[in-house]
């Protein structure tokens, strides 16, 4: 066997990024690994960014947590940034309860009117609290399935 001689015009030093004769390509392999890591990192960043409104609402125990979650999901699936901005705004600000002070003012005015006219003062009816989910009235004395007391 004859020893192969290098062509006189061929460079004596070949850079490492040139594909080898055996088909291995170090630069291509490195770029594929880098590309996979980059796509995974961008995906994690994108999903983390879309979870910010839900995290804000969850941390502050926001009463509109489900609306914030729905808006964030709509923004995620439709790529409509308006939904995401609305979710941030809803999560960031609590809507003030304006009805309770107005009802209190109305009750106070009714009591003052009754006092001025000499009528008996109206008693404000306190609303009954709604039963918690999953209880369905079991154990409550006024529930239809509770045993009735005999006198």
Could you write a compact summary of the structure shown?
The protein is mainly α and 151 residues long. 52% of the residues lie in helices and 0% in strands.
Descriptive report:
The chain crosses the membrane at residues 26-49, 70-93. Residues 142-151 have a biased composition (Basic and acidic residues). Keywords: Membrane, Transmembrane, Transmembrane helix. Residues 120-151 are annotated as: Disordered. The chain has a domain at 26-92. The model has no long low-confidence stretch (mean pLDDT 79). Helices cover 52% and strands 0% of the residues. With 151 residues, it is mainly α. α2 (52-59) packs antiparallel against α3 (65-78), α2 runs parallel beside α4 (81-92) and α3 (65-78) packs antiparallel against α4 (81-92). It has 5 helices and no strands. The longest helix has 25 residues, at 26-50.
List the helices and strands and how they pair.
Elements: H1 26-50, H2 52-59, H3 65-78, H4 81-92, H5 99-117
Helix pairs in contact: 2-3, 2-4, 3-4
Keywords: Membrane, Transmembrane, Transmembrane helix
Region (Disordered): 120-151
Transmembrane segments: 26-49, 70-93
């Amino acid at each position: 066997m004859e020893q192969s001689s290098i062509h006189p015009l061929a460079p004596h030093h070949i850079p490492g990024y040139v594909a080898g004769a055996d088909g291995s390509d170090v630069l291509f392999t490195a770029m594929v690994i880098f590309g996979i890591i980059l796509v995974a990192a961008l995906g994690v960043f994108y999903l983390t960014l879309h979870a910010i409104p839900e995290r804000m609402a969850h941390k502050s125990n926001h009463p509109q947590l489900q609306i914030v979650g729905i808006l964030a999901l709509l923004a995620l699936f439709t790529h409509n940034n308006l939904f995401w901005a609305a979710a941030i705004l809803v999560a960031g600000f609590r809507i003030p309860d304006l009805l309770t002070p107005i009802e209190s003012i109305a009750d106070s005015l009714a009591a003052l009117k009754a006092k001025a006219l000499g009528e008996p003062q109206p008693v404000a009816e306190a609303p009954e609290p709604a039963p918690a989910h999953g209880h369905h009235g079991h154990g409550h004395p006024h529930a239809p399935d509770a045993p009735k007391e005999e006198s």
